């Protein structure tokens, strides 16, 4: 079947039938990583999302009961102080999973697509916390979670052709992005970058999604370390076989990307792998409960 090559405009137009990544979630996550952001800024962002607010208050009140607090927690500032920023980050992630997980299921994507996305979010966040390079863990988590969002769009555009891309990539032992360019005229990296740019996510996230299969491109030389981080996370998540999906392909890891991140392959890397595997398994256990 001949397809018209998707353009940025056509991608944005068709994306209206898909749920966009809630801007408030990216805002909350980036606020959590900003040492100069006030608690009032965070509370203001959380209050704009009723689902996240309700979940935070619920968790806080459960903690209050266990701590024998006499009064119920009814405001976000008190709830955040009670349960801590780490827990708020986790609740925010779960909220984004609920939205996109339901979407992936509705349009017929294999569950392994979202399991891989979850594993990538965890992997990116853990690497960001492991390296010395200045990468905000929450933005790394968002970039990992959305790195293959272009595949969601391509599958929605033409599911049969997308499935043929996965099959051809496996049979021919070639990168999925190469098969997408052959079948669609554009790959999921470019489509994904168009989408997240339209959703007004930070430029570093846009670049990381657009170049995660090509971290050595000259275009990435001056970009933030989020680009090599997402590339390394993709290779590691496949090498560790975090989801056991048949689409996993262990690609060559870029030595330039590792150097940019200051990654040292010593005994500490084993501890990193252990944290990634443990957290990925836990996060995907929650995702499984959504189906």
Total strand count, please? 0
The percent range for helix content is: 55-70%
Q: How many whole angstroms does the radius of gyration measure? A: 19 Å
Number of helices: 16
Query: How much strand content do the residues show?
Result: under 5%
Number of domains: 2
- Helix-strand pattern, N to C? HHHHHHHHHHHHHHHH
Quickly name the level 1 CATH class of the largest domain: Mainly Alpha
Separation of termini? 32 Å
Cα shape: globular
Outline the biggest β-sheet: none
Kindly describe this structure.
The protein has about 290 residues and is mainly α. The protein has helices spanning about 10-15, 25-30, 40-45, 50-65, 75-85, 85-105, 110-130, 135-145, 150-155, 160-170, 175-185, 190-200, 205-210, 225-240, 255-260, 265-290. It starts with 7 loop residues before the first helix and ends with a helix. The mean pLDDT is about 80.
């Amino acid at each position: 079947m001949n397809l018209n090559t998707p353009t940025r405009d056509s991608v944005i137009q068709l994306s209206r039938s898909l749920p966009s990544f809630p801007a408030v979630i990216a805002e909350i996550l980036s606020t959590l990583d900003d040492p100069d952001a006030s608690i009032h800024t965070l509370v203001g962002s959380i209050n704009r999302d009723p689902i996240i607010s309700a979940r935070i208050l619920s968790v806080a009140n459960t903690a209050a009961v266990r701590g024998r607090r006499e009064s119920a927690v009814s405001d976000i500032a008190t709830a955040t102080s009670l349960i801590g920023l780490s827990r708020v980050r986790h609740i925010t992630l779960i909220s984004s999973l609920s939205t996109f997980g339901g979407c992936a299921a509705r349009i017929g994507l294999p569950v392994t697509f979202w399991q891989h996305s979850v594993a990538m979010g965890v992997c990116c966040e853990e690497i960001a916390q492991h390296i010395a390079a200045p990468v905000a863990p929450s933005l790394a988590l968002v970039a990992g979670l959305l790195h293959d969002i272009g595949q969601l769009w391509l599958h929605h555009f033409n599911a049969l052709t997308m499935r043929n891309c996965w099959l051809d990539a496996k049979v021919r032992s070639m990168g999925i992005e190469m098969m997408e360019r052959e079948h669609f005229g554009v790959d999921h990296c470019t489509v994904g970058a168009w989408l997240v740019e339209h959703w007004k996510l930070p430029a570093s996230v846009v670049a990381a999604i657009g170049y995660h299969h090509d971290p050595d491109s000259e275009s990435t030389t001056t970009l933030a370390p989020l680009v090599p981080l997402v590339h390394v996370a993709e290779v590691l998540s496949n090498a560790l076989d975090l989801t056991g999906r048949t689409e996993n392909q262990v690609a060559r890891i870029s030595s330039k990307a590792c150097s940019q991140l200051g990654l040292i392959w010593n005994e500490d890397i084993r501890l990193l792998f252990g944290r990634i595997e443990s957290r990925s398994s836990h996060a995907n256990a929650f995702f499984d409960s959504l189906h």
